[in-house]
Each structure stands twice: as structure tokens, then as C-alpha cells.
Specification:
Strand order of the largest sheet: 2-1-3-4-5-6-7
Largest sheet: 7 strands, mixed
CATH superfamily of the largest domain: Alpha/Beta hydrolase fold, catalytic domain
Distance between the termini: 120 Å
CATH class of the largest domain: Alpha Beta
Strand content: 5-15%
Order of helices and strands: HEHEHEHEHHHEHEHHE
Number of domains: 2
């Protein structure tokens, strides 16, 4: 009996040792997995931050895919149109950066001031970013942005001014501004600047006179707004007539099959913007098949 009890105790002791060994192994195994989990999560978090950092660097800095690093000195300022924001110019900004330009896609108070106030706002911004250093300063604008740049250059001509491309600019005003100019509801929606963009001789665009810089104008002749087009004589883009997009002194003029609202999203239009900034002309090869290309 005593021998049996000793044997039973020995078996229980061995079982406890095995259980303890198994528990220790299991604990070590889970600890190892937990450690691996911590390493994995750290790696994932690090990868996430790296991705975000690279994405931000991609947006903020120029991509030197076309020009050599030492040649990346030209700056391009983008100005959106009325009731729009810099988001509308993101496609052009991306293509310009990939071509090697330093891009400044600006926002401004398009609905909260007069044209003169917008010009002063632009002046202050450019003094801080774009008037110093080597290289030229180019502009690419949409709609109202073109009129702001015309007045800015007339008042404060940059010493490093390069070329300008305007998309759908109301260079001689717009009939829609004539219609909405005295309407208080339209003034609330569009801001006080709409009253300055009419077609009369005293409107801001018509007071600025001829341009004296290298300017290429691209405007559309398609419209999604039949009521607006009914108010505008001749071919138009739904906001500005083809004829009123022209301005005396421009170097080249092009009509494209696009609307005022989305002209800046066209890959072919962006191709022409890039070509003009580089060569001071629109690409004849593209224009022969896709566009109505015209001299001033």
C-alpha cells in the first residue's frame, strides 16, 4: 500500500512538472507571438507614416521627371475662377510638377472682395513665395483668375515674369455679369466682383487695356447651360463667349470643345498649357486634329 502511494505521488509530481513545462512553453509561445505582434504593428505604423510623409512630399515638392534638378527654377502660380477653389486646379498642378516646375496652387477670397482687393491679396502672397530667386514666374489661370493676373501685372509687373496661359477668361467681360450685376441675390452668391465683370466700357476687364506679356488664351465652345448660352451671343462655353475671351496683345488663341466649368480637366488642354509655357506657342500637331487654332 505504501509503495502504491509513493508511485501515485511520483506520477502526480511528474504530471505537475509536465503541466508546468507545457504551461511555460505555451506562455513563451504567446509571448513570442505578442512580441511579433508588437513588431508587426510597429512596422505597419512606421510604413503608414512613411507613406503619408512621401505623399505630402510629393504634393509639396516638384517632381523632376522632365528637367534636370539644376534647371528646376521656374515657378508657376495657379489661380482658380469664381466660386471655385484650388481643388479645381489640382490636375494641372500635378502635371506641372511632374514636368519639373515649382507650383503654387493658390486660394483667394473670390467671393469676399472687389477685384482690387483680390489683386492686393495676390501681391502679398507672391512677395512671400515667388518674386525672389532664379527662374521665371509663370501664371496659369481659370476664368476670373485671368483678370486678376492682368490687373496685377499692370500694377506690379514682376521682374521675373515669364508666360501666362488663361483658360476661359472674360477678357472683355461676360453678358452673364451684365445680367447678374445689379441683382442682390447674385451679389450674395458671387460676391461684389461680379458687378465689375460686365461687357461695358467701364468694366474692369475693358479698362485694363492690351496685354504686354506673352499670353496664350484657351477657351471653350461647348455649353451645358442652354439658358446662359441663349443670353450670350455667338459660340460660348456657358459663361464667356469665344469672342470675349480674346484680348488685344495676346500671342496665341485657341478654341477647344469643352465647357467653362471643366476646361481645366482636359488632358489635351493641359498638354497645350505645358507646351505654351515651354515654347511660347500652342502645339500645331495637337491643334490640327483636336482644336480650332487661331492667331490673335
Amino acid at each position: 500500500m505504501a509503495v502504491q502511494l509513493r508511485s501515485l505521488r511520483a506520477l502526480l509530481h511528474m504530471g505537475n512538472r509536465k503541466s508546468l513545462t507545457c504551461s511555460t512553453k505555451t506562455a513563451r509561445k504567446w509571448a513570442g507571438l505578442a512580441g511579433l505582434g508588437r513588431i508587426t504593428w510597429k512596422a505597419l505604423i512606421s510604413l503608414l507614416f512613411m507613406t503619408l510623409w512621401i505623399g505630402c512630399a510629393h504634393k509639396d515638392g516638384p517632381i523632376r521627371s522632365k528637367l534636370n534638378a539644376e534647371e528646376v527654377t521656374d515657378k508657376v502660380v495657379l489661380l482658380h475662377g469664381l466660386i471655385r477653389s484650388s481643388i479645381s486646379m489640382v490636375g494641372i498642378a500635378r502635371r506641372l510638377r511632374s514636368a519639373g516646375y515649382q507650383v503654387f496652387n493658390l486660394d483667394y477670397s473670390a467671393r469676399q472682395g472687389t477685384l482690387d482687393q483680390m489683386v492686393e491679396e495676390l501681391r502679398g502672397t507672391l512677395q512671400g513665395c515667388c518674386l525672389r530667386g532664379p527662374g521665371r514666374l509663370h501664371f496659369v489661370t481659370h476664368s476670373l483668375g485671368g483678370i486678376i493676373v492682368r490687373e496685377y501685372i499692370a500694377k506690379y509687373p514682376p521682374p521675373n515674369l515669364g508666360r501666362v496661359v488663361m483658360l476661359g477668361p472674360p477678357n472683355q467681360g461676360s453678358e452673364l455679369a451684365d445680367f447678374f450685376g445689379d441683382n442682390p441675390v447674385a451679389g450674395w452668391v458671387f460676391g461684389p466682383v461680379v458687378a465689375e465683370l460686365g461687357t461695358g466700357p467701364n468694366s474692369k476687364p475693358n479698362q485694363l487695356g492690351p496685354v504686354e506679356f506673352e499670353l496664350g488664351v484657351i477657351t471653350g465652345d461647348h455649353s451645358w447651360n442652354p439658358i446662359a448660352s441663349w443670353m450670350i451671343p455667338g459660340p460660348d462655353d456657358g459663361t464667356v463667349s469665344v469672342e470675349r475671351a480674346k484680348v488685344e496683345g495676346m500671342k496665341r488663341f485657341m478654341v477647344v470643345p469643352h465647357t467653362h466649368t471643366f476646361i481645366m480637366n482636359s488632358d489635351q488642354v493641359i498638354d497645350q498649357v505645358l507646351f505654351f509655357l515651354e515654347h511660347g506657342d500652342f502645339s500645331p500637331a495637337e491643334s490640327e486634329t483636336l482644336y480650332h487654332l487661331g492667331a490673335p
